Amino acid sequence: MQISELSDRSGLTVQTIKFYIREGLLPKGAAASATRSDYDERHLERLRLIRALREVGDIPVASIKKIIASVDDESVGMRELFGTTQYALGPHVDAPDDPHWRAAREDVDALIRELGWQVSPEAPARELLAQTFVALRRLGFPITLVELRPYMKAAMSVAEHEIGGIADDAPRSRTVHSMLVSTVLYEQVLTALHRLAQEDVSARRFGD
Amino acid sequence: MQISELSDRSGLTVQTIKFYIREGLLPKGAAASATRSDYDERHLERLRLIRALREVGDIPVASIKKIIASVDDESVGMRELFGTTQYALGPHVDAPDDPHWRAAREDVDALIRELGWQVSPEAPARELLAQTFVALRRLGFPITLVELRPYMKAAMSVAEHEIGGIADDAPRSRTVHSMLVSTVLYEQVLTALHRLAQEDVSARRFGD
């Protein structure tokens, strides 16, 4: 297809598509003539992914570039690819160098060890969790395994569903695509449903 | 206690505390002399809540003001108070007036009706969920009850734990405090644990 059709079907302007090609996020089309390039479904699929990451995940172009480079490099193993993706996605919490923060970070590391979860020491989600531990403690809310268990159970059951749903023979780009979508989009689905469920449970408990 | 001690214990500067008093987020202290006011534990608890909402939830001061006004107004029923809180917290998604968006919003409304959840038509989480439906559909991911069920189950079990954990005789401010904390802070705990669980499940599945 021509770039105009690619633009129509992806919902992105020709200018934006050309920008992504220049930035290396999208491969060039095949040369169809001296002035025209030809694009296929893979271009479309990649553009849709980029659009979702930009619009829903608010992921910077530079981070999307890193993710796509790892997807295209077949020598990068799946586990490393997953780490690169998660790290690029962020969020990157600025950990201040204070004792409360260090204590919270140690609690997070101890929790992950205790659970036996295989998580890289650099995973940004460790800092994200430490940030909430600092805030919860400041508010006087206890952080205990008992208090965290419902959240761990919910998180694990959702993750098992997501990773389990990836077919063994799925192409590499599709697997990453699924991981990205479940991280960025289904994370937001979970947040929205959590708020809706809170309102429902609260309405049933407190009435009008 | 004097304002200097309140500052030490809350971790907020005297200037910030005075700003919150001027903005009506924090009641004035009791006059202890012509130039000195006296503050108590309720001031401290409120400041800790404001700090967590600002720093972790990134909630604007104007929204915090609305929430606190409803907490202080005993004539506002618990259910209405919950709605005010959720609405003030946002996020407020700008819904464009296009057919994809309208279709997604209708799907969200149908889903909530089908589940029998009691949720206000104005709940911002409806727009948040519609936003992800638009993006998922654009990426070619199916949105079916079967696909959503693991997320609904996880969200509901967490919400039941949260609302169920509020004591019947808890003071009004403490109840709201708990709802806010579970919405803003434990939502982030859930997100962080979801990412950690994804990494663990993916490591076990894909190895090194």
From TrEMBL, chains A, B:
Pfam hit, one: MerR_1
GO MF: DNA binding; DNA-binding transcription factor activity
UniProt domain HTH merR-type: residue ranges: 1-70
Protein source organism: Actinomadura barringtoniae
SMART domains, sorted: HTH_MERR
Listed PANTHER family: HTH-TYPE TRANSCRIPTIONAL REGULATOR ADHR (PTHR30204:SF98), REDOX-CYCLING DRUG-SENSING TRANSCRIPTIONAL ACTIVATOR SOXR (PTHR30204)
Entry keyword DNA-binding: yes
Protein name: MerR family transcriptional regulator
SUPFAM superfamilies for this protein: Putative DNA-binding domain
InterPro entries documented for this protein: DNA-bd_dom_put_sf, MerR-type_HTH_dom, MerR_fam
Keywords: DNA-binding
